[in-house]
Design brief:
Layout lengths: L2 E8 L9 E3 L24 E8 L4 E6 L4 H4 L5 E6 L9 E10 L25 E4 L10 E5 L2 E7 L6 E5 L4 E6 L2 E2 L6 E3 L1 E4 L4 E7 L5 E6 L17 E10 L7
Parallel strand pairs: 6-9, 8-17
Antiparallel strand pairs: 1-3, 2-4, 4-5, 6-7, 9-15, 10-14, 10-16, 11-12, 11-13, 11-15, 16-17
């Protein structure tokens, strides 16, 4: 069965933009790179309807701007896109985490002060590292129950590589860039490097109760603006009460 996707991109920015469907095998006029393709540049106050068939297999992808990329993408213009399996899921929990990093204006390195700060997209002196747009302790925990099979989809549309590490468990790498590995090709790891432009799917059995850190292993990336408290690209796999049916923890 061939499915079709339709998305209306309405530009409320003060400048032109576009949408690129990262990792999807779309027609050339829907790919969203107006400088080199027959794809329209969406001007302020205008919109464009993207239409294309879904020919990729089920998997994890992204979408992001592909115009004035250094500015727009580093201000967070990106999101996740998951092609679901029409036959259902093989996991009990399915999480998506987008990794991003930001610099801000007017806040010296090593200082945290309440206030509103403007993102500085053209700086590579990055201060804040996020999961789904938030720094720890404001990131969302990942609840699990004993005995569950858990999938975490990791996506990185931004600039830096992030080695993501899970405490207390080993995981299996099941897919990359929306392409699933066969059983014999899967790696068993507890840390995986997610480079710019990549998506990775990892799966693990929730068999070791507790609150387990899940974070980037670059030390500066687990601090908010280089302050001493834990922060940045960090969340927790959090066991809830009870167990999944017919399964138990050790």
């Amino acid at each position: 069965m061939l499915l079709a996707a339709s998305a209306s991109a309405i530009n409320t920015l003060p400048e032109a933009t576009s949408v690129h469907w990262h990792g999807l095998d779309v027609p050339n006029n829907m790919d969203g790179v107006p400088e080199v393709e027959p794809t329209p540049l969406i001007k302020p106050g205008c919109y464009f309807d993207y239409h294309f068939p879904i020919t990729n297999p089920p998997g994890t992808h992204m979408y992001h701007t592909h115009h004035n990329v250094a500015r727009q993408e580093m201000m967070g213009m990106a999101g996740g896109l998951v092609i679901l399996d029409p036959h259902g899921s093989s996991v009990d929990r399915d999480y998506f985490i987008m990794l991003q990093e930001f610099a801000v204006k007017g806040l010296p390195m090593g200082v945290l002060e309440p206030g509103s700060y403007e993102v500085n997209p053209l700086s590579d002196d990055l201060q804040f590292f996020t999961m789904n747009g938030r720094c720890f302790p404001e990131t969302t925990p990942l609840p699990v129950q004993c005995g569950e099979r858990v999938r975490i989809r990791l996506a990185n549309p931004a600039m830096m590589e992030h080695p993501i590490h899970l405490h207390g468990h080993q995981f299996v790498v099941t897919a990359t860039d929306g392409n699933r590995f066969g059983e014999c090709a899967r790696m068993r790891k507890n840390t995986i490097a997610v480079s710019s432009g990549e998506t990775w799917d990892i799966e693990f059995e929730a068999d070791n109760p507790g609150n387990w850190p899940f974070h980037c292993h670059i030390p500066h990336h687990t601090a908010n603006n280089m302050t001493k408290e834990t922060g940045g690209m960090f969340t927790v796999v959090q066991y809830c009460g009870g167990s999944a049916k017919t399964k138990s923890c050790r």
